[in-house]
Design brief:
alpha/beta; 5-stranded parallel sheet; binds cytidine-5'-monophosphate; single chain; globular
Length: 227
């Protein structure tokens, strides 16, 4: 059987990773969460006082890029790969609001993108990969066999992210989450390097009113048509 490359892009908190993980597990493919990599670089920048809500010392981060070692390690208990930053599991630390509020600034830095895109391409070399992010179908794998662009209303997305954070025990307000989702969409869409945009040949899925099962089946049908 032929293995394909599946690129899933879209706005923040559209549920890309949920459906990407399910599809990867079903097909026996590798799932790569490219957003986790940008989050891990942001965590490094926070830990090394390179960025805060008030300042961003971009050059200091650029100079330190060679000291940032990222890798994914599969956690069989969870059924997906977790993010490691310099040998430390940062899966939880990269999902906080503090990181969400800074990550788009870091991700707009071309030098950061160059490093991460290189790594992402390596991970996709052997095909049989589902990768989600903002520029997977446009920049990382412009030749991907199947490209999906996920959308949903900002309210729907913020509600989902809010419920997720609450479940984890994070003390956040709905307004704060909504603002973060809107701010990230704005920065991600308007940056110069690799802005978030639907690839010409991507299939758009608005999942505002789709159940997880509906989404999974919609994507699986597209996969079957592609293979
Ligand atoms: O996917 P997630 O919401 O975790 O991504 C966090 C942030 O990382 C995005 O808001 C965006 O700024 C950045 N990102 C990116 N390119 C990708 C994946 C994520 O710029 N391929």
């Amino acid at each position: 059987t032929t293995k394909i490359t599946i690129a899933i892009d879209g706005y923040s908190s559209t549920g890309k990773s949920t459906v990407a993980k399910q599809i990867a597990n079903y097909l026996g493919y590798v799932y790569v969460d490219s957003g986790a990599m940008y989050r891990a670089v942001t965590l490094y920048a926070v830990q090394n006082n390179m960025i805060s809500p008030e300042h961003f010392n971009k050059q200091k981060l650029i100079d330190a890029l060679d000291d940032i070692h990222l890798f994914f390690k599969f956690n069989p208990k969870k059924g997906f790969a977790e993010m490691y930053l310099n040998d430390k599991n940062v899966e939880k630390a990269i999902r906080t609001m503090a990181i969400s509020n800074l990550v788009s600034k870091v991700a707009a830095t071309p030098e950061v993108r160059k490093k991460l895109v290189q790594y992402q391409r390596q991970m996709g070399e052997n095909e049989g990969v589902v990768m989600d992010g903002r520029d997977i179908g446009t920049v990382v794998f412009p030749e991907a066999d199947l490209k999906i662009f996920m959308t949903a209303s900002a309210e729907t997305r913020a509600r989902r992210r809010y419920d997720e954070l609450k479940e984890r025990g994070d003390d956040v307000s709905f307004e704060e989450v909504l603002k973060n989702v809107q701010d990230r969409d704005h920065i991600d869409t308007n940056r110069k390097d690799s802005p978030l945009i639907k690839a010409e040949d991507a299939v758009e899925i608005d999942n505002s009113n789709l159940s997880l099962e509906d989404q999974f089946n919609t994507v699986l049908n597209l996969v079957k048509k592609t293979i």
